[in-house]
Design brief:
This protein has 368 residues and is of the alpha/beta class. It is built from twelve helices and twelve strands. The strands form two sheets. The protein has a seven-stranded mixed sheet. Strands 8-9-12-11-10 form a five-stranded mixed sheet, covered by helices on one side. Helix 11 packs across helix 12. The longest helix is centred in the last third of the chain and has 20 residues. The N and C termini lie far apart (52 Å). It binds pyridoxal-5'-phosphate (PLP). Pyridoxal-5'-phosphate binds next to helix 3 and helix 4. This is Cystathionine gamma-lyase.
Length: 368
């Protein structure tokens, strides 16, 4: 059966007469668990919950591995760092990794005796830093500058050097790119973004094919309590059921928007891996099924970017990405990333592409 069919049908219950087609969330802290707890599937909700189990089954199917869900994308990143890194270890991160993951590594794990080495995502520059490393952390496409690294190549090099490989796969989702199939040990994501896609949930997951890593992460989750509420888990599962439709439309819109932006005199640079002119395009084509919903581009300066965002009617000025409605922000307003003042990160939604292009044209003309 095709993966899309499996995802769309993943929330269906067994066909028992009189039962609902889709089950609801299970709200529980303790569960009935008399006597010896061995063999009782659910005992206490910090360790497990049937609504997570349903969600994890679907994410595991998508990832071709075994997934654990967490309270946020950052809780998922923290679980990888925390369950793997020990004092004296070396972790190699992208210099342009998602800001909070980078700060977590540099401001906390480095102070606990972990050496953090960084190099850009582009050109597989992290390759040069692998000697003696315990963990290689990859993010491709990188956020927000859309640089591409070759996952299979880096995973091979990292394994030769004795390092584990984790990929932050937030932007493409496992439907767009499959890190485990490309050789990574861990696929990590903020499912707050395209994976759930409705801009109303915060969650993350880690997937692996290693039973040992799975057990370590599970133990970390139970001990730290970085768990998802059942309502969020239920909403997430319901949202993921439409991932194939949403991602296909959003990525097709992103491609059309990126191509259109390259024709415009107001735009000085367009960064999208689906463009043949992108330096990472050939690698992206090899390892991605969809190039993702995020297009970054640069306007003349800060006032031009602000005018663009103020004028556009169909582009909501907000952070984050991957929602069904198109959003964008002037990314330099946050600081922390090496980008120009006129840099805009746009996340294509599922609106009609002609409406979006007309709106973008109007907003660009206002910046002249
Ligand atoms: N990784 C990437 C690439 C992200 O963009 C984000 C959030 O923006 C995260 C991780 C963290 O996810 P969350 O906000 O769900 O904690």
């Amino acid at each position: 059966m095709n993966e899309t069919t499996r995802i769309v049908r993943s929330t269906l219950t067994a066909a028992e007469p009189g039962k609902p087609l889709h089950s609801g969330p299970v709200f529980a802290a303790p569960y009935h668990a008399p006597g010896d707890p061995t063999g009782i599937p659910y005992t206490y909700a910090r360790s497990h919950n049937p609504t997570w189990t349903d969600l994890e089954r679907t994410i595991s199917d998508l990832e071709t591995g075994s997934a654990l869900v967490f309270a946020s994308g950052m809780a998922a990143c923290t679980a990888v760092f925390g369950s793997i890194l020990r004092p004296g270890d070396v972790a190699v991160l992208p210099a342009n990794a998602y800001y909070a993951a980078r700060v977590l590594a540099q401001d906390y794990f480095s102070k606990m005796g972990v050496t953090i080495r960084t190099a850009p995502t582009a050109g597989n520059a992290q390759r040069a830093l692998l000697e003696g490393a315990r963990l290689l952390w990859i993010e491709t496409p990188s956020n927000p500058t859309m640089e591409i690294a070759d996952i299979a190549q880096l995973a091979e090099d990292a394994h030769r050097a004795g390092a584990l490989v984790a990929v932050d796969n937030t932007t493409p989702t496992p439907l767009g790119q499959l890190p485990l199939a490309l050789g990574a040990d861990l696929s990590v994501a903020s499912d707050t973004k395209a994976m759930t896609g409705h801009s109303d949930l915060l969650l993350g997951h880690v997937a692996t094919r290693s039973p040992e890593l799975h057990a370590q992460l599970d133990h970390w989750r139970t001990l730290t309590g970085a768990v998802l509420g059942p309502m969020e888990a239920w909403l997430a599962h319901r949202s993921i059921a439409t991932l194939p439709l949403r991602l296909e439309r959003a990525c097709s819109n992103a491609q059309r928007i990126a191509e259109f932006l390259t024709t415009r005199p107001e735009v000085t640079e367009v960064l999208y891996p689906g463009l043949p002119t992108h330096p990472g395009h050939e690698v992206a084509r090899k390892q991605m099924r969809y190039f993702g919903p995020v297009v970054s581009f640069t306007l003349r300066d800060k006032p031009a970017a602000e005018t663009f965002l103020r004028t556009a009617q169909l582009i909501t000025d907000a952070t984050s990405f991957g929602g069904i409605t198109t959003t964008a922000e002037r990314r330099a307003r946050w600081g922390g990333d090496a980008i120009p003042e006129g840099f805009i990160r746009l996340s294509a939604g599922c609106e009609d592409i002609h409406d979006l292009l007309a709106d973008i044209t109007h907003a660009l003309e206002a910046t002249r």
